[in-house]
Amino acid sequence: MNAIVPRPCAAAAPSELIARHDGRAPRYTSYPTAAQFTSDVDAEVHQQWLAALPTDEGVSLYLHIPFCERLCWYCGCNTRAVTRRETISGYVDLLETELALAESVLPGKLRAKSIHFGGGTPNMLSPDDLTQLFGVLRHVFDVTPGAQIAAELDPAVLTREWVQAAAFHGLTRASLGVQDLSPEVQAAVNRIESFEVIENAVGWLREANVGSINLDLMYGLPRQTTDSVINTLDQVLSLRPERIALFGYAHVPWMKSHQRLIDEGALPGSEERFVQSEAAAAYLFAAGYVRIGLDHYALPEDGLAVAQAEGRLRRNFQGYTDDPAHTVLGFGASAISQLPQGFVQNLTTERDWRTAVSAGHLPTARGVELTDEDRFRGDIIGQLMCRFRVDLDAVCADHGRSRDELAFALSHLTPLEADGLAELSGSILTVTENGRPFVRTVCALFDTHLDRAAQRHARVV
């Protein structure tokens, strides 16, 4: 297990490190990233890729539910606030249609090893909606016994009845959005909920024997301080969740217009964000959690921690995962599929998605076909994001490439090495413990698609 104690950077003051290395970079949940998706990958290509899937390998399923009862101002997800049940039930009907469209081109009844409901707020679905969706999922796919079934939940609208219904259908893991329990911070992002709401939600999940509970927290929110981050951790750790995800708030109002409602003057600066993140890491380590990748923490016996220890940790559009499936089939507005040939994204606006599915078409918007170069560099970036270490010569050998092709990346590594954030020893490139917050900066060196002048991505720290 990871027994390294998180500590502040020693090579230079945080302010100096941030000034030198805090650029903008993707989160690298894929490579190439969604910024490289184009309409060249259309419904016809998508259909061909689905038809070519191997029948002897399992797949994972992702269903996007783009509805919330409230719109939190920090949110970067594809969602909207709804009040009419008809809107949600109509969406579920069309999800059933989309699954039937996929069934018509798939090579057979593929084994589904995991199902992930994301959003938005999947617990906006009614128990009857769940029954309908699980019925069609089990008709189209061979959902294996013991399949991992996860859902992202809003505790403020969760009920015991919903938990019982989801557990009946096999729910094994739940992620509860908490973010921060400070009333001042909650007011600044339009998300009000008490600790008692979180406590009740966890209690219902434990009562229903949902074996893994993840709490989503954030740092870098408006009016947030290191003290409020630690106070939130102090409260939620009394519930002993199996996992904690601690995400840095990404302020991208040019992409998410509702973020303009946030007072930018109340946002902590890069140095304060850095201190919040590292203080939380130290607190979680002291509480017995293993640091997983960039922003996750898990109890040592949790599957995510075990996967990291055994070198099986992977990264996909749902974040860090121990899911062994290499194919993810996404359904719903904006959902992304990961296929052997590349990535495919559905139409992002709910209206366009509804129109396409209603017309009997796969709702494909765009994607990217992987090249040998993409697979090569994606392997390096994936290992750095998951293991903070990569044997460059081994990766070159695996892909039939020359290390000379990495000359540009390695020539720009020197400043990071000088500040103790990365080390290159022979063919082994390591992101140091001090360099963890800057791992995306290291990964970006190997990203040949990245437009370093563009402002589309959030800052690294």
Task: Record the SSE blueprint.
Blueprint: H1 14-21, H2 43-51, E1 59-65, E2 67-68, E3 80-81, H3 85-105, E4 111-119, H4 127-140, E5 142-153, H5 160-168, E6 173-179, H6 183-189, H7 195-207, E7 212-219, H8 226-236, E8 243-248, H9 270-286, E9 290-292, E10 296-298, H10 303-309, E11 314-316, E12 319-321, E13 328-331, E14 336-339, E15 342-346, H11 350-358, E16 364-369, H12 372-387, E17 389-391, H13 392-399, H14 407-411, H15 414-418, E18 422-425, E19 428-431, H16 439-444
Parallel strand pairs: 1-4, 1-13, 2-3, 4-5, 5-6, 6-7, 7-8
Antiparallel strand pairs: 8-10, 9-10, 11-12, 14-15, 15-16, 17-19, 18-19
Helix pairs in contact: 3-4, 8-9, 12-13
Strand order of the largest sheet: 9-10-8-7-6-5-4-1-13
Structural class: alpha/beta
Low-pLDDT residue intervals, each spanning 5 or more residues: 1-11
- Spatial gap, N to C terminus: 26 Å
Helical region count?
16
How much of the sequence lies in strands comes to 15-25%
Number of strands: 19
Helix content: 25-40%
Mean pLDDT: 94
| Largest sheet properties | 9 strands, mixed
Shape: globular
**CA-based gyration radius:** 22 Å
